[in-house]
């Protein structure tokens, strides 16, 4: 029989269930509202639809941040060119080291502080295109899918990116150049990455993976004329070392993060001028590797450094608290739709039909369109 003393521990471990249920449960609601907007603007200029799409996407992502920032209790520690980043809205390609699914939320956390959260687009692995509801919608939101091998359907990607340029679509294009997550639980992936660096006569990286350049190259080639800068973002999670050995362990997933696994989230932003980003392929590869050398040193200091370096990406940092005024209206907005959809017989019927229809239509559409 479970002891009374275990109840607080169990409640803490299960703290992620309600927010995760609300966020995922809002997906059919989102697609219902978004689909209505899509049909309502079918005969109007494309820009009208895009403005509404970005607005609805921003409302959904602010709902996510309501739980991941305001309710999780995590301390957000920012460093680097944060002040410059938040001064004005910009079109950027943002590259980030990749450790876990929470990395997606980090892009939200930065973009909302600039007022650009609705403009986020992602380079995504191809398998996600089949995710119910999300996979289809992300394609509508100008996200780009890549093959698992890391090779693009290059013509499709170029067409998508060029369409964004032609339509003057605002963007934060998020790229994870490593291609997969750095996970200490999979040492074979880390070893393979390090061996590849050695084969290139380069110093192996210890706390990030060797970056692949193709996604960055395509984004830069196609979007440069509309870009303001490249944001080089480095992310580290506190409480990710083994209690006994001190060795690095896996970064928290969505549920662990919501349950308070990491008490601090550290984010360092380096704003890179386009004039400092090479256009030639070999030079770009070298530049990207050098940026990841810097990331690797920052991550190594975070886990192994002495004094002020340990547990920090930069000694000069600030704690950033996101006001509820940014996220609570989004929570209330989606709640106003969810309550009648979840609490009435007719609402539940519409809700489940929306979920089923959007999934089936999405799979068919994604099977036809590259």
Automatic annotation (TrEMBL):
- Among its keywords, does the record have Acyltransferase? yes
Any matching Pfam family: Acyltransferase
Q: Which positions, given as ranges, span the membrane?
A: 16-37, 351-369
Query: What are the residue boundaries of the Phospholipid/glycerol acyltransferase domain, all occurrences included?
Result: 92-217
| Key words of the record | Acyltransferase, Membrane, Transferase, Transmembrane, Transmembrane helix
Cellular component terms per the entry's GO annotation = endoplasmic reticulum; mitochondrion
Alphabetical list of CDD domains matching this protein: LPLAT_LCLAT1-like
Any one of the GO BP annotations: phosphatidylinositol acyl-chain remodeling
- A molecular function GO annotation: acyltransferase activity
Q: Which family does it belong to?
A: Belongs to the 1-acyl-sn-glycerol-3-phosphate acyltransferase family.
Query: What is the name attached to this protein's record?
Result: Phospholipid/glycerol acyltransferase domain-containing protein
Task: Tell me what organism the protein belongs to.
Answer: Capitella teleta
Its ancestry begins with:
Eukaryota, Metazoa, Spiralia, Lophotrochozoa, Annelida
């Amino acid at each position: 029989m479970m002891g009374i003393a275990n109840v607080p521990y169990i409640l803490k471990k299960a703290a992620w269930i309600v927010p995760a249920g609300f966020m995922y449960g809002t997906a059919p609601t989102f697609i219902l509202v978004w689909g209505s907007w899509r049909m309502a603007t079918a005969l109007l200029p494309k820009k009208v639809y895009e403005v509404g799409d970005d607005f609805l996407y921003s409302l959904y992502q602010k709902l996510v941040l309501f739980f991941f920032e305001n309710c999780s209790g995590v301390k957000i520690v920012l460093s680097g060119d944060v002040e410059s980043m938040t001064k004005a809205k910009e079109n950027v390609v943002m590259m980030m080291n990749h450790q876990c699914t929470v990395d997606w939320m980090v892009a939200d956390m930065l973009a909302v502080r600039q007022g650009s959260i609705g403009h986020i687009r992602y380079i995504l692995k191809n398998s996600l295109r089949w995710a119910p509801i999300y996979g289809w919608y992300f394609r509508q939101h100008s996200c780009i899918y890549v093959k698992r091998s890391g090779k693009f359907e290059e013509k499709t990607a170029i067409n998508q990116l060029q369409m964004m340029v032609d339509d003057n679509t605002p963007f934060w294009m998020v790229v994870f150049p490593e291609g997969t997550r750095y996970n200490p639980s999979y040492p074979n992936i880390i070893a393979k990455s390090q061996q590849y660096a050695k084969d290139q006569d380069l110093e192996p990286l210890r706390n990030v993976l060797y970056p692949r350049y193709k996604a960055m190259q395509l984004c830069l080639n196609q979007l440069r004329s509309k870009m303001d800068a490249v944001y080089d973002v480095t992310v580290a999670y506190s409480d990710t070392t083994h209690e006994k050995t001190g060795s690095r362990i896996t970064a928290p997933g969505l549920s662990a993060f919501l349950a308070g696994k990491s008490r601090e989230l550290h984010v360092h932003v380096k704003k890179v001028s386009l004039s400092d980003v090479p256009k030639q392929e070999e030079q770009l590869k070298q530049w990207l590797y050098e940026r990841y050398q810097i990331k690797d040193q920052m991550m190594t200091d975070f886990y192994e450094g002495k004094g002020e370096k340990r547990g920090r990406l930069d000694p000069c940092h600030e704690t950033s608290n996101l006001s509820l005024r940014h996220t609570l209206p989004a929570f209330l907005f989606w709640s106003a739709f969810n309550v009648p959809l979840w609490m009435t017989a007719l609402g539940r019927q519409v809700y489940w039909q929306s979920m089923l229809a959007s999934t089936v239509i999405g799979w068919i559409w994604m099977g036809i369109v590259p």
